[in-house]
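Reviewer 2 asked us to include a model.

Predict the structure of this chain.
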Amino acid sequence: MQNIDRIYMSRKIEFQNIRERLGAHIYYADEQAIIFNDDALNILKLIPEHSASLILTDPPYHSTKKGNIVNDKAFSSDDEFIGWMECFAVEWKRILRPNGSIFMYCSSAMEAKLEMMLSKYFNVLSHIVWTKPNEPGFDGWKGKMKKEALRQWYPHSERIIFCEPALDGNLKRSYFGGLLKEKRTACNLSGHQLTEMIGAYGKVNHGGAVSNWESGRNIPSKEQYNKICASLESCGLQEPMPDYEDVIRPFEVNANVEFTDVWTFPSVRPYKGKHPAEKPLEMLEHCIRSTTFENDIVLDCFAGSGSTLVSALRTKRHTIGIEIDKKWCESIKKRLQSFALLPTEGVDGFKVMKGCLQSNEMPTLF
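Predicted model (C-alpha cells):
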C-alpha cells in the first residue's frame, strides 16, 4: 500500500474509532464530521490520546465579558480563568498527535498569561496578530467608536497563539528529536556514524544534521528521513520507523498566503443569525492547510458557529466540534447538512467545496 493510502486509512480508522467510542454522546455525525453538544471538558476526557492532528479553537475571551457567549462572564478573576484553560491544555496535550499543532484565539489582554500557561505543555512558536480589517465599503463598528473617551489604545486586533506539543529531553523539546535519539541509541550508533551513513554532514560540528535534528533545531526533508529509516533498519532496528507524516509537524506556507505573524483577513460582516465570535472561513482554512495533511482530524472544542468544521470539510479533512449551546449545535448541524447537498468531485469520499457557506443559510454556488 502506498504511503498516502496508508495515512488516509489510518486517519479514517481513527475518526471512526472516535465515532464508535463516543457514539452515545454524539449530537450529529456523518462520514466526515462529528458534533457534540456538551461541556467540552466532558467530551475531551473521552477522546482517545493522539487522535487529533490540529486543535483549532476559539475559547471564551474572559476579558470581553460578552453576555451572549457562554462562560465569557463566568470567572471572577484572571487566575480563575487561566486555571480553567489549563484543564483544557492538559487534555489537548493528551489528545494531540505528537506532530500536531494548536491555534488558539484569545484577546490581546489575556494573551501573555495564556502563553505562559501553555508553555508548560507546548512549544509556543508564534503569537499572531489578527488585525481584522474591514472590507472595502464596509465601515464596521470601528468607525463608530468615540475615540476621545478612550483611556488606552483601542484593542481592535485579536491574538492567535500557535504552538506544538513539547517533550522534554532535548534543547527545543522536540518530539522528533527525542524519537531519533532513542532509535539511534537502540542501534548502538553515534550521531557521527549515522551522519556518515546518510551523508548529512554539518558545516561546523561532526554530528552534522543529526545533531541538529536531535536537539530540535530543525527537521529533515522527506528524502533525508527515508535515508534515516533505511540506515537504522540496516543496523538492526527492531520496529519500523513511523511514516514521515506521523513524525514531522507539517508547515506549508508560501509567498501567496499570509506567512508573517500579522494577518489581515477581514472579519465576518454582520448578518441575521451571526455568531458573536464567528471567524472568517478563509482564515480558518489558512490555518488548516498550513499545518495538516489531507484526511487529518481537526478538533474545535468551542465550535460556536461551526466555521472550523466547515473549513475542515472544504479542505478535505475530518473534523470534530464540541459546543455547549444547543442552539449553535443545531445551527452547525444545518450548515453541515447544507454542505452534504453540494455537488461533489468525489475525492476519497470527501465533498469538494463549491459553495461559500459563510452564513448558516443554504450556500450560494460559485
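DSSP finds eleven helices and nine strands in the chain. The chain has two domains: 3-168+250-340, 175-246. We have added this to the supplementary material.
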